[in-house]
Design goal:
Number of helices of chain B: 15
Radius of gyration of chain A: 18 Å
Distance between the termini of chain B: 27 Å
Shape of chain A: globular
Oligomer: heterodimer
Number of domains of chain A: 1
Structural class of chain A: alpha/beta
Largest sheet of chain A: 6 strands, mixed
Strand content of chain A: 25-35%
Largest interface: A-B, 32 and 25 residues
Strand content of chain B: 15-25%
Distance between the termini of chain A: 18 Å
Helix content of chain B: 55-70%
Number of strands of chain B: 13
Radius of gyration of chain B: 29 Å
Helix content of chain A: 25-40%
């Protein structure tokens, strides 16, 4: 990965804590790092280390106590809830552990869902959805409901939904956590392809060293503090 | 796919739950409509009353008679156009359950004073010629299968004996709100008989029906009539036909109030049921709403989906309830026509049913919408898996 790539995510001095009763529990402490455009980054660490919280902050679905996060040059910590919703629609694609597809919608309709906020025409939406489902090799499953698809296929639909708006970054929270080994391998290969062929930036939270092995960079979190980081192979 | 499709798919996702909720709303709206129609039927006589008709009766009570000689004096009052008179006859056909309103009346003026009773000219003439002739409303004729020329015997309850009549005319109502159950015959027929059997009751009437030039002079005419008979043996009280009808309603006002209260309680109950359905639905979909928020859908967008779903369910139930109100009211009105001669579903009842359905939908959705808007994505995502 060349260093001449622009910085796409800039995280500076992030602090985040939760209040439990009268106690304040620190979750993230003074997190600072950058993510380059087109980089595949894995966040690793034990449960409760704050990796999912950090991912949520980068994706604009949670707010930091202090510090700044810039994505594509926009400081998202200053945006209101409404502005953040609009920002997420354009800039962030989400991939979850449990796929989180709408059970009443077909694969096509699930992928189309985020496009309803874009103002594209019906024909344009269809073109985008067909392309996204084609990219995850599910063109023959467009009319299937999630309950009619395997776990791996559902995750591929979720990936198609994440990329269909051509977002600035893709965030993935344990994307292979609910899959068997073979399906997990397929999903990781697909994510690798998104980075290499489409130049996507992916930030992935994972416990799985095999999944992390696919990333360019691995960052470890321990009790809310970045302990080390470096190229994936070296880290593993 | 539009969000409307998602809305409909969500509304019918739990088919049994949605079916039962829709069924509940249908029954509630139907019950509400029927109860409102009963209240309307109670006031039907008042609604059908004319502003140019006054009723003069004995000031003590309706059960005390007035001398027939008052007629000519009343006619002399400026503003009076016509004076008719009637007696409540209270006859029953074969047995007491066959009740319908029947009156001995001044035949000529009765027909002129009630233009809303449409009688064919030839039948009117036949009625005028026959001392025992009778004009009967379409519904009563239908109820007993009476035809023109049929001989009908009523058993007198106030005026004892068997009274024979010949059906000479059948009237139709000019409007839907016109009572088509009445039965009226020549007062002379009754009076002649009373002269022989009970002379002290002869030449007396229950009330006078007074036609006036215009509603504007009605109050002055009423005062003038009552002034005429001040300090006489039978003082009068003259009021508009509407006030006269309302005096009957006031006796049963408590029942009407109870019916109105019950109709509101029915709506409150179904509102609670619907609110519970929506609350359950939204609680189950917390994760999905969180996902939608991550995709960029704002809180108000999701609130709109919840409101839309509530409107679809309540709207379906309300539409079915409103649709069923008409046949139910017809069946109810037909079987109880002796008590409710006019049992029509009014336009205002339909509007009230629609408003009730709308209120149920909106109120049921308020709390779930509030929860969905306040939902933090991170909290919602924690519910999944």
């Amino acid at each position: 990965m060349g260093d001449n790539r622009p910085i796409i995510v800039e995280i500076r001095n992030i602090f985040k804590s939760y209040t439990r009763g009268s106690q304040t529990v620190p979750v993230l402490e003074d997190i600072t790092f950058d993510i380059m455009d087109g980089e595949f980054l894995a966040l690793m660490g034990p449960s409760g280390s704050g990796k999912s919280t950090l991912l949520n902050l980068i994706a604009g679905i949670d707010k930091a106590d202090s510090g700044t996060i810039k994505v594509g040059g926009i400081d998202i910590t200053t945006l209101s809830e409404t502005d953040l919703a609009g920002w997420r629609a354009i800039n962030v694609g989400f991939i979850f552990q449990f796929y989180n597809l709408m059970p009443v919608l077909t694969a096509f309709e699930n992928v189309e869902l985020p496009l309803l906020l874009t103002g594209l025409s019906r024909r344009e939406r269809k073109e985008h959805v067909d392309m996204a489902l084609g990219a995850v090799s599910l063109s023959d499953r467009i009319d299937h409901y999630p309950s009619q698809l395997s776990g791996g296929q559902q995750q591929r639909v979720a990936i198609a939904r994440a990329v269909v708006t051509d977002p600035t970054i893709l965030v993935a929270d344990e994307p292979t956590g609910d899959l068997d080994r073979r399906s997990a391998e397929e999903i990781l290969d697909l994510m690798e392809r998104l980075v290499h062929e489409l130049g996507k930036t992916i930030i992935m939270v994972t416990h799985d060293p095999r999944a992390a092995g696919k990333a360019h960079i691995i960052k470890h979190l321990e009790k809310g503090i970045l302990t080390d980081n470096g190229p994936a192979q070296a880290a593993i | 796919m539009g969000l409307l499709k998602l809305l409909f798919k969500n509304a019918f996702r739990h088919k049994l739950r949605t079916f039962l909720t829709v069924l509940g709303i249908t029954i509630a709206i139907l019950a509400f409509g029927m109860l409102r129609t009963i209240v309307g039927a109670w006031y039907a006589g008042v609604e059908a009353s004319s502003a140019t008709r006054l009723v003069t009766r004995n000031s003590v009570s309706l059960v005390f008679f007035l001398p027939i000689s008052y007629k000519e004096k009343i006619r002399q009052v400026p503003g009076v156009t016509e004076v008719g008179y009637s007696d409540w006859f209270g006859g029953v056909y074969i047995e007491e359950k066959n009740f319908f309103p029947n009156f001995a009346t001044d035949a000529k003026t009765a027909i002129e004073l009630f233009p809303e009773f449409l009688v064919p000219e030839d039948q009117k003439n036949a009625f005028m010629r026959d001392r025992k002739g009778v004009v009967v409303g379409r519904k009563t004729a239908q109820r007993f299968g009476w035809k023109i020329g049929d001989l009908v015997t009523l058993k007198g309850t106030i005026f004892p004996g068997n009274w024979e009549f010949v059906i000479r005319a059948i009237y139709h109502g000019a409007q839907k709100s016109t009572d088509e159950t009445q039965f009226f015959f020549h007062w002379n027929y009754l009076n002649e008989s009373l002269k022989k059997t009970a002379p002290y009751r002869a030449d007396k009437v229950g009330w006078f029906l007074v036609g006036v030039k215009s509603p504007d002079v009605a109050a002055d005419v009423a005062v003038e009539i009552d002034k005429l008979f001040k300090n006489s043996l039978a003082e009068t009280i003259t009021e508009t036909e509407k006030a006269f009808q309302l005096s009957f309603i006031s006796m049963t006002e408590a029942i009407v109030v109870v019916i109105q209260l019950v109709s509101i309680i029915v709506i409150i109950i179904i509102m609670a049921v619907m609110a519970n359905t929506m609350a359950m639905t939204v609680r189950e979909r917390t994760g999905e709403y969180a996902i939608m928020k991550t995709l960029g859908f704002g809180g108000w967008y999701i609130g709109g989906l919840i409101l839309g779903e509530s409107l679809v369910i309540a709207g379906t139930g309300s539409a079915l309830g409103i649709g069923l109100t008409f046949p139910a009211a017809k069946a109810f009105g037909d079987s109880l026509s002796q008590y409710f001669p006019i049992f029509n579903v009014s336009r205002s009842t339909i509007y009230l049913e629609m408003a009730a359905g709308l209120i149920v939908a909106v109120v049921a959705a308020v709390f779930p919408i509030w929860r969905a808007i306040r939902l933090r994505i991170a909290d919602g995502l924690r519910r999944i898996g």
